[in-house]
Specification:
globular; alpha+beta; single chain; Phosphatase 2c, domain 1
Length: 244
C-alpha cells in the first residue's frame, strides 16, 4: 500500500464577483468529506453562464460516495456529460443561444487523485515547494502555442479568451482526465481563469506554501481583488497530509 493511502485532506473555497462584472457566473464545489472539489466558470458573453455553472456543480454535488478512484472519476465524467445534455436541451428551448461553462475537478480516493476538466479552468499542484499545472487549457491560446507560437504573443492575441471545449458548447462533450499518486504535503489549487488573469503562475510557488488552506484561499482572493479582478474569481485550496 502506498504512503499516500494513509493521507487525509483539508480544503477551503472562495468565490467573488470581482471588481468589474455584475453577476458571478462562477460556481464551486468543496466536498472534502467525499474527496471531490470542482470549479465551473460560466462562459462570459453567453446567455445564463450562472445557470450553466450551477447545473454542473449541482449534478456533481449529488455523486454517491466512491468505492474506488477509477469508478469515482467515471461517475464524475458521466455527470459532466449529463450536464452537457441538459444545457444543450435548455439552449434549444431558449432559441439556440449557447449556455456553457468550463469545469475543472479534483477527486481523491485512498492514495491517489485525478483531475477531470473541459475548458480553461485549472488544477495546480504544489509538491516539495514547486508548483506544476496539471491541466492543459482547451483554448485557442494553447492551440497556437502547440503550433509553435510564442506563449506571450499567443496570450495577447484577440483570441485570448476563446475556449475550444466547454460543458454545453457542443452536442458531445469530451472530458480530459489525468491520474496521480499523492504525497504527504501535496497542496492543490483548483481555480477559474479570474485568478490566473491577475496572478502569475510563478507567484504561486510562494503563495501556496504559506498557511492553512483557508488562509491561502483568502490570500489568493484578496490579491486578485487588489489587482482589479476583471473577471469573477474562484479558488479552492486542498492539502493532503498524514493524520496527527
Amino acid at each position: 500500500m502506498s504512503d499516500g493511502a494513509f493521507l487525509i485532506w483539508s480544503s477551503s473555497a472562495r468565490t467573488d464577483v470581482g471588481r468589474v462584472r455584475q453577476v458571478n457566473e462562477d460556481a464551486c464545489l468543496d466536498l472534502p468529506e467525499l474527496g471531490l472539489w470542482a470549479v465551473a466558470d460560466g462562459m462570459g458573453g453567453h446567455d445564463s453562464g450562472d445557470v450553466a455553472s450551477g447545473t454542473v456543480v449541482g449534478l456533481l454535488g449529488s455523486v454517491d460516495p466512491p468505492m474506488d478512484l477509477d469508478g469515482f472519476v467515471a461517475e464524475v465524467v458521466r455527470r459532466l456529460q449529463d450536464a452537457n445534455a441538459q444545457l444543450r436541451a435548455e439552449a434549444e428551448r431558449r432559441g439556440g443561444a449557447t449556455i456553457g461553462t468550463t469545469v475543472a475537478a479534483l477527486v481523491a480516493f485512498g492514495g491517489r487523485c485525478a483531475c477531470a476538466w473541459a475548458g480553461d479552468s485549472r488544477v495546480y499542484r504544489m509538491r516539495d515547494g514547486l508548483v506544476e499545472r496539471l491541466t492543459v487549457d482547451h483554448s485557442v491560446v494553447e492551440e497556437y502555442v502547440a503550433s509553435g507560437m510564442n506563449r506571450e504573443e499567443a496570450e495577447n492575441g484577440p483570441w485570448r479568451n476563446y475556449v475550444t471545449r466547454a460543458v454545453g458548447a457542443h452536442d458531445a462533450l469530451e472530458v480530459d482526465t489525468a491520474f496521480y499518486d499523492l504525497k504527504d504535503g501535496d497542496t492543490f489549487l483548483v481555480c477559474s481563469d479570474g485568478l490566473y488573469k491577475e496572478v502569475e503562475e510563478k507567484e504561486l510557488d510562494d503563495l501556496l506554501g504559506r498557511g492553512e488552506p483557508n488562509e491561502v484561499a483568502t490570500r489568493l482572493l484578496d490579491l486578485t481583488l487588489s489587482r482589479g479582478a476583471r473577471d469573477n474569481v474562484t479558488v479552492i485550496v486542498i492539502r493532503f497530509h498524514h493524520p496527527g
